[in-house]
Amino acid sequence: MDSVFFYRNPNPDASGNGPLGHLSIATQPNISIAGWPAEAGSHALAGYTALEDASVAARLRKKGANLCGATRMSEFGFGLKNSLAAQAVQKGDANAELVLDLAGECRLAALHEGLCGYKPSYGLVSRYGLIGLIPSMEACGIIARDCKTIRDILEAVAGPDEYDFSVPEDAPVSFSTQGIDPEKISLGVIEEARSALSDEDRVIFDARTQTLKKAGFTIKTLPFPDFSLFSLVHRIVGSVEASSCLGRYDSVRYGKRVPGAKNWNEMYLQSRGAAFGPLLKSYLFQGAYFQFEQFSGYEDACRIRARLLSEMEQLTTQADFLILPAVNSASIHAPNTTESLDDTYAKVFHTAFTNVTGQPAFYLPFEGNKGVQLAGPRLSDARLLALGEHIQNMQQRGQ
Amino acid sequence: MEFEAVIGLEIHVELNCATKLFCDCPNRPGDEPNLNTCPTCLWFPGAMPRTSREAVQKASLLCLGLGAELQPVSAFDQKVYYYPDLPKGYQLSQAHLPLARGGGMDIIDEEGRPKSLRIHHIHMEEDVAKLVHEMEGRTPISLVDFNRAGSPLVEIVTEPDFRSPHDAMEFLKALRTQVRYVGSSECSMENGTMRVDANISVRPKGTNLMNTKVEVKNMNSVRHVGDAIAFEISRQSACAQSGEAIVLHTRLWDPDKKVTVAMRAKFEGPCVPDPSVPSIVLTPQAIEQMRAQLPEMPAARAQRLVTEHGLSGEEAVYLSTDPDVAGYFEALTGHGVLPRTAMHWLTTQLIPAVRERRQELAKTKVTPARFAALLQMLARDEINANAAREVLSHLFDSDETPESIVGAKGYKQVSDPGALDKLIDKVLAEQQAAVADLKSGQGKAMGFLIGQVMQASNSKANPKMIRDLMAKKLA
Ligand SMILES: [Zn+2]
After folding, report:
1. Mean pLDDT value across residues B100-121
2. What is the overall mean pLDDT for chain A?
3. In this structure, is residue B291 part of a structural domain?
4. For FRET with A5, which of A187, A321, A340, B331 sits at 20 to 30 Å CA-CA?
5. What is the pLDDT of residue A16?
6. Shortest distance, CA A3 to any CA of chain B (angstroms)
7. Do B305 and B371 belong to one domain?
8. Is A135 within 8 Å of B276 when comparing Cβ atoms?
9. Cβ A166–B90 below 8 Å, yes or no?
10. How far is A322 from chain B (nearest CA, A)?
């Protein structure tokens, strides 16, 4: 069995200083840390060493955290094939782990290990130094055993960054402890997300909402007839962005160059052909198809995305937070070896919507992997995590 | 059948910003290869573009200077194409939401009538790397220089309003003047800070057909643009005459052979919005502030030079075409030089001298203050015009004041009547024949005699005083 770690920091940072001095944090090799290999799980980046620290890494170090190493990951973080995310935290090798969430990967990796997995609001955390794939959807997620640790880490990494202009300069970041009074909080259940579950899963999910109802929360059922369009829009827009983004991996300055090409054009074609694995390749082919053959399909997807976004904004005015299933359990038991695009998107059916809208969401464990997903309006991260802490405290008290 | 051409231009202008468009690297493409690079402009994984405020400012001023309307929201797209000069596989360009729309230039057409040529839109984009092709022994190799990668560009796309090489050349000259005025670029085709592609098609005269166009590139002067268009019109007209179909393609201008040659097209894909580059949002207030920063434009300046300094319309337009020239002129008058003197010495002496030395007016050692001091000495009759020209050439090579050069080199004009009297008497005694000519009414003998006195004074005498004194003596 391979080690969970793809790379271990040979010079662990001195701990004990700063508010995060007690934390040992793992990353994945698509988060740049100067001098560490940053291959992002792909031959396209074979042998590439990061030149600079990603802003998230620099901020964690500044607050005293020890960056202990990078764990094995799926190719460019897309899907969870070959990913060993969350295992370092599970095994106690790290207190937390940073995992990019492109369609729900961070949340689902946490689910596998029965941990908390958090995807922040889009634009709350700098993407500088993250080797991404779907720039309009991905966010640097955090996996930990409890919401308090996630809150401390998010507080350290969130906010404007002079290196990432896509983080709004005035993004409000206040993570002070917030009291949660269940009597004053409503949780919306998206009916179409619930009804997409198997009977067995639905029974478990309904038991969760019942528990929260008993704890005093108001549970509301909210309709979202087009919920299934989220993963479709994600699939089209995501593949086009991925196709555009990965154009830069040309095997010239790093990565594997296929020998024997007669000219540069052949070298690009052959090397790119050899660089990417089958799942990513099919994603890129799909993206290239929309880019070059069916651009109007991509434009339609962008328009639908805008509509879904405003419908979701409307929905989040009807409840304080949303409560949803995280996954259809049948999809995660599919064999991991021959994962196709369809398999990948079946797994993220319940999570990808927050990547499309940019709202924050996290997986909160109940009995390990039988937990729920909680989501809030964009930039409601502090309150959403406070809600998570409240529910975790409830669980500890055995309520 | 008679044909007419339908021509549109795509003009790339490199902004003279201190940094590149999306990083803090110096915007100096000419430096030692790959000196001005960083992870962002080398497009290393994880790097993110950060739009330069200065570039947006300079691009916006350029748009206003060309009469275009700045858009409230503009945004960058990833324009996909694969070529070794673009290793990230896409160029950041404003494909869907350009910075400005509309605008244009007024020119005088070949028949002397005013003509308006419209701009369709103006967008910002980053430049790509430069490929240098060399031989390594017998193997041809291509080297990539990233100094230019990420340099800030604007692209001005015109309407197909042009009908002749003349239209295109006049438009480019007018555009260059406007852009130099707002200070956003040097706009030099020779130095590559302005690059022009022309889209040309022909149609039977009098019809409204829009036929297949051919794009022509690689012209590196305004004249070449005219030549290339003229060649392409006659080539396409001949094709049309003989019934040969025109296919959409790109041709390169060969300035030596004076022909256009078909080139292989680059593979170009569509454009995807880039979420990592925030949209440029310009509020009405921001646009007004920008407009307030616009300098006085050439037409207004020429008008003012006429009313304030009494120049002729033609002189004023000539000076105003280049903001450096107009600025120099006004600096001279600001130092008290009379407008006529300033105009004359600037255009007939200083500008040719600067050009001869391959310098720039704005950067030459002969500052307006030094040149004005020289012209003041001339006005006070302390030196004569010959000496002034000599001193001017010394001003280029030394930091000394005109006064000290005049003193050190003995250029001071001889205006002492006693000294001049002696010289004149000597010349009159030696040149009996000329004196006789003059007395018999041959006026040009006077010039000859004055010249002789000047020579005798080593060019230091005051020619006006010689004339007066001589006239008295011979009266
Ligand atoms: Zn740079």
Report:
1. 94
2. 92
3. no
4. A340
5. 65
6. 25
7. yes
8. yes
9. no
10. 26
**Nearest chain A alpha carbon to B96:** A299
Q: Tell me, yes or no, whether B58 and B197 share the same domain.
A: yes
- For chain B, give percent helix, strand, coil, nearest 5: 40, 25, 35
User: Is the CB of residue B43 less than 8 Å away from at least one CB of chain A?
Assistant: yes
- Using an 8 Å CB-CB cutoff, list residues of chain A that contact chain B: 32, 38, 40, 45, 48, 50-52, 54, 127-131, 135-136, 162-166, 240-241, 244, 246-248, 250, 252-253, 264-265, 268, 291-292, 295, 298, 302
Query: What is the token pair recorded at A58?
Result: 């620099």
Å from CA of B25 to ligand 1 middle:
4
Query: Each residue of A169-199: b (16+ CB within 10 Å) or e?
Result: eebebebeeeebebeebebbbbeebbebbee
**Residue span of the structural domain in which B390 resides:** 296-409
Q: How many domains does chain B contain in total?
A: 3
Q: What pLDDT does residue A336 have? A: 56
Confidence (pLDDT) at A15: 59
More confident residue, B436 or B126: B126
Considering B361, B377, B409, which residue would you say is the last residue of a domain?
A: B409
pLDDT digits (tens, 9 = 90+) for B220-263: 999 999 999 999 999 999 988 888 888 888 999 998 999 999 88
Average pLDDT for A349-353: 97
Cβ-based neighbours of B448, under 8 Å, separated by 6 or more: B431, B434
User: Do B326 and B281 share a structural domain?
Assistant: no
In this structure, are B97 and B212 located in the same domain? yes
State yes or no: pLDDT of B420 exceeds 80: yes
Say if B89 is an interface residue toward chain A (CB within 8 Å).
Answer: yes
Phi, psi of B155 (to 5 degrees): -115, 125
The predicted pLDDT at position B175 comes to 96
Cβ–Cβ pairs < 8 A, chains A and B:
84
Which token pair is B377? Answer: 């000495």
Q: Is residue B278 part of a domain?
A: yes
Alpha carbon distance B307, B304 (integer Å): 5
pLDDT digits (tens, 9 = 90+) for B366-385: 999 999 999 999 998 888 88
Task: Classify each residue of A267-299 as buried b or exposed e, where b means 16 or more C-beta atoms within 10 Å of its C-beta.
Answer: bbebbbeebbbebbebbbebbbbbbeeebeebe
Which has the closest alpha carbon to A43: A53, A57, A29, A27? A29
Give the Å distance between the CA of A123 and the centre of ligand 1. 23
B37 at the A interface (CB within 8 A)?
no
- The predicted structure's pLDDT at residue B266: 62
Nearest by CB to B270, from A40, A45, A295: name it: A295
Nearest to A32 among B46, B88, B269 (CB): B46
Tell me the sheet residues that pair with B257.
Answer: none
pLDDT at A313 (0 to 100): 96
> B48: CA distance to ligand 1 center in Å?
10
Let me know if residue B290 belongs to a domain: no
Predicted confidence (pLDDT) per residue in A140-185, tens digit: 999 999 999 999 999 999 999 999 988 887 756 677 777 899 999 9
Interface predicted TM-score (ipTM): 0.89
Please tell me the pTM assigned to this model: 0.84
Residues on chain B touching A136 (C-beta within 8 angstroms): 273, 275
Dist CA A67 CA A97 (whole Å): 9
